[in-house]
Write a structure and sequence with these properties.
Elements lengths: L12 E5 L3 H9 L3 E5 L5 E5 L7 H8 L2 E6 L8 H8 L5 E4 L7 H9 L4 E4 L9 H6 L3 E3 L6 H16 L2 H9 L20 E5 L3 H14 L2 E5 L5 H16 L7 E3 L3 H7 L2 E4 L13 H6 L5 E4 L8 H10 L4 E4 L18 E3 L8 H20 L11 H4 L15 H4 L7
Parallel strand pairs: 3-4, 3-5, 5-6, 6-7, 8-9, 8-11, 9-10, 11-12, 12-13, 13-14
Antiparallel strand pairs: 1-2, 2-4
Bound molecules: nicotinamide-adenine-dinucleotide (NAD) and (2R)-2,3-dihydroxypropanoic acid.
Amino acid sequence: MHINKTEHLKFERLRFFLPTPELLLASMAKPVSIEVWNPSGKYRVVSTKPMPGTRWIDLLVQQDCRVEICTQKKTILSVEDIIALIGDKCDGVIGQLTEDWGETLFSALSRAGGRAFSNMAVGYNNVDVNAANKYGVAVGNTPGVLTETTAELAASLSLSAARRIVEADEFMRAGLYDGWLPHLFVGNLLRGQTVGVIGAGRIGSAYARMMVEGFKMNLIYYDLYQATRLEKFVTAYGQFLKASGEQPVTWKRAASMDEVLREADVISLHPILDKTTYHLVNKERLSMMKKEAILINCSRGPVIDEVALVAHLKENPMFRVGLDVFEDEPYMKPGLAEMKNAIVVPHIASASKWTREGMATLAALNVLGKIKGYPVWHDPNKVEPFLNENSLPPAASPSIVNAKALGLPVSKL
Ligand SMILES: NC(=O)c1ccc[n+]([C@@H]2O[C@H](COP(=O)([O-])OP(=O)(O)OC[C@H]3O[C@@H](n4cnc5c(N)ncnc54)[C@H](O)[C@@H]3O)[C@@H](O)[C@H]2O)c1
Ligand SMILES: O=C(O)[C@H](O)CO
């Protein structure tokens, strides 16, 4: 049975204060407001935030879930808030990257009978997977659906930084433009320059392709693993350009990250955040970069030592950065907001409608799959079958990061 948007109206929709003992305690200080779909559903699934689209709700309701969505007007929920939401009976939770999913929350979920959690994000550095393993809780994430959207924002920041678009926009709006001048907002030409990618996984490779294909940049990348498909793409594109009488593009896999920093004109960071990538870009490494280089970060804030970055931006006015993520989100380190050579946006890299709705769907299906005892999808890089709105999704969890540790079966499809 597929439930379309208007049919949602058939489901009773309530807005009320959750009346569990835990919430009553928590609510003495702060009530948690929630919205309920399908109140008589057998499985209780909690989403800590309203998420885009309605397909994710449809899919859960169709499978006998009661869906409770926290509508509290507080951007980042505390551990206490989430414990109150979990209550004493909860089968699964869809959470957000701003939440601290560790021992406390996984034990609360386990006590409530829940064995399913999914981040609505591909990155899961906010989740203590070992703690989840201890309580037998599956941890889902949402790869693939955000790859191109995130890479497009990294490309947008690269262009905006190269051509000083934000500075020029502010200048225009301030009424300062009084005529064309040869030196006005001169920036960098990308064509023929070198783009450096640190972490050439899904998003890093998609970004590299955009910059190579779109702007005919040469590529240098650093990753722990060889990005074979990316290398093949650049080789083939270089051959195509040569055959068309144009300057071919080239690629190089660097032996070290420092090699990328020294050689590239634009460097984009796309690794996961873990202890090997914390402050990967520090004072010493910033000093290796070209004076007029551009640094883009759409991975996680702590990959850059932001204090060192602010100092570097001050000392090198021609060095530019484009940042979507920050070390102490939602805050910026002192001085960053004043830097004209920094473009800052509020963690919006995956914020296209299609992607955010897809992320919600994948997160819901991760939780549903575990609740229903479905296997884990065989390839988290190929999640398209779950995103087709015109057909039912496969009976599987799209992406469970601790599937192996929990010994979960894998789909043979
Ligand atoms: N800003 C945003 O809104 C946004 C959106 C999506 C993803 N992200 C972040 O981007 C990250 C990457 O996402 P993805 O889907 O491309 O993941 P991915 O796993 O496909 O790619 C990550 C790559 O980083 C590499 N890597 C790991 N440790 C490294 C190290 N020490 N040095 C160099 N490379 C290293 C891995 O080998 C892998 O190829 C996510 O973990 C998330 O934190 C941010
Ligand atoms: O990891 C992620 O998915 C992002 O940070 C949000 O899309």
